[in-house]
Amino acid sequence: MNKQGFLNELSSQLNTVPEHDRTDMLYDFEEHFELAMENGKTEEEIAESLGNPKLIAKDLLAEYLVSQAESDQSVKSMFHAVLATISLSFFNIIFLLGPIVAIIGVYLSLSATAIVLTLSPIGLIASLLFEGPSNFLIKFFMAVIFCSLGVLMSIGMIYVGKFLYQMILKYVKFNIRIVKGRAGK
Fold it and tell me: Is residue 177 within 8 Å of 66, Cβ to Cβ?
């Protein structure tokens, strides 16, 4: 494969990356070709030494999406970064997806608990309609306590969510380094 074929294949694999960022990525490889050709290597030798453009594109896309998730900090960008990292190898399906799904499941269940506790005064109103005002003060204070716990827990879950986002992002980056063979760096 010559220089133009390599760069065309790499560019087509990176078609989801915005044009400006894709141009920057391709520039590095064009520069690599130019420097190696100045040292007497042929385009075919250079392309062979760089490797498969499809694998390189997966790696570049994973790194790009992780950097997007760092700056954007949305669930959508995190989801894209996780999927791109999983595509790097089958190994990642077990060691990346499993823990992330478990952590997100626990987080969602705790968030649902916080919402239910916050909405507990609705239960007080329902019990007044069906049972009448018996034990009203006890029910009222229980509803206030549960609602207060729910609000506090909801506020805590916002901070836990931000923390989990950062931790998942670090775990994804660590996993990319493992796949590349640079775990200690």
Answer: no
Greater confidence (114 vs 52) lies with: 114
What letter does residue 133 receive in the DSSP assignment? Answer: S
Alpha carbon distance, N-terminus to C-terminus of the chain? 32
Q: Which long-range contacts (CB under 8 A, 24 or more apart) does 152-159 make?
A: 153/110, 153/113, 153/114, 153/117, 153/118, 154/111, 154/114, 154/115, 154/118, 156/114, 157/107, 157/110, 157/111, 157/114
Report yes or no on whether pTM surpasses 0.70: no
For 80-106, what is the mean pLDDT?
77
At residue 15, the 3 state secondary structure works out as coil
Whether 19 shows a pLDDT value over 60: the answer reads yes
d(CA 139, CA 129): 13
Distance CA 54, CA 14 (A): 9
CA dist 160 and 109 (Å) reads 13
